[in-house]
Design goal:
Blueprint (H helix, E strand, L loop, with lengths): L17 E7 L4 H12 L4 E7 L6 H8 L4 E6 L5 H15 L5 E6 L6 H13 L4 E6 L12 H18 L11 E4 L3 H5 L7 H12 L4 E6 L14 H13 L32 E2 L2
Parallel strand pairs: 1-2, 1-4, 2-3, 3-8, 5-7
Antiparallel strand pairs: 4-6, 5-6
Helix pairs in contact: 1-4, 5-8, 7-8
Length: about 280
């Protein structure tokens, strides 16, 4: 799946009924560069989960929380990206279940807002398809080309994923993912609190037979920079352990399965900033 427009496209609008989930850990200006274009594009709901950021970083979170379409959720202490994703998805299930689905991304500018919007629009067009943002330039000298150890790790995880599932993916570690509403309650139940959770999530989707596709993205123009919260040795072992010990979660029946855009007549999106404390 791909969009014919280029990475410098402007004027993309967000589709109705698709939320964005952003995990923020010690965010800086980059978070504003992610959220503000999505607000201007008309994103109906942006869920920002603050994973225990320090007080010196609160200014950027307090600033975006003033926006009526931003729902800010906070962990009192850092729990990990996986735990933060589950906090956001649980909130989605409880408050936004009438939406088509949600798109996960990062707060560091790794994925350009135009790419996030493209994936949102792809989910709106195909509301029963799990969609993964995959860079067309991955493995080259693009913003996605990381240090050699990261490329080797990607290769090993990709091969292991293919052996276990029979599915070959360009990037099993992509964090730009579109998740249909029907899948969200199942994914909240999957064990994991850090980066291994995202891999386990992908394994569940693949092993459950849920339809999946990759959507071509361009990536940020900024140089690649490692995630400060990622621990190369322990987190890599955790992901390999998640591959070895994976057990599918029982599917949950979701009433009123997502309709096509032509059939949809969902309620008005919920607005207003939410600052509910989360201590999962």
């Amino acid at each position: 799946m791909s969009d014919t427009s280029n990475s410098n496209s402007v004027g993309l609008t967000a589709p109705p009924g698709v939320a964005v989930l952003v995990v923020a850990s010690e965010p800086g200006r980059a978070l504003l560069d992610v959220v503000e274009p999505l607000i201007r594009a008309g994103a109906a709901a942006i869920l920002v989960v603050d994973d225990g950021s320090s007080s010196v970083r609160r200014w950027v979170l307090d600033r975006i929380s003033l926006e009526p379409t931003v729902h800010l959720l906070r962990h009192s202490t850092p729990l990990g990206r996986g735990a933060a994703l589950k906090t956001g998805m649980q909130y989605f299930v409880e408050h936004l279940r009438h939406y088509t689905g949600l798109v996960t991304t990062t707060s560091d500018g790794r994925y350009a807002p135009t790419d996030v919007l493209r994936v949102m629009r792809a989910l709106y067009r195909s509301p029963k398809l799990a969609i993964l943002g995959a860079s067309e330039c991955r493995g080259t000298s693009s913003a996605f080309a990381g240090p050699q150890w990261a490329s080797i790790g990607d290769l090993i995880l990709g091969l292991a994923f293919r052996v276990l599932t029979g599915i070959s993916l360009t990037d099993v570690q992509t964090r730009l993912r579109a998740i249909p509403t029907a899948l969200v309650p199942q994914l909240v139940k999957i064990p994991g609190s850090r980066y291994e959770y995202e891999l386990a999530m992908l394994l569940h989707i693949a092993c459950s037979g849920y339809p999946m596709a990759e959507h071509a993205i361009f990536g940020s123009a900024e140089p690649w920079c490692p995630d400060d919260a990622f621990r190369p040795v322990s987190d890599s072992f955790s992901m390999l352990r998640a591959l070895a010990n994976f057990t599918p979660v029982e599917p949950e029946l979701v009433e009123d399965a997502v309709e096509t855009p032509e059939q949809r007549s969902s309620p008005e999106p919920r607005s207003g900033a939410s600052r509910a404390k989360q201590t999962r």
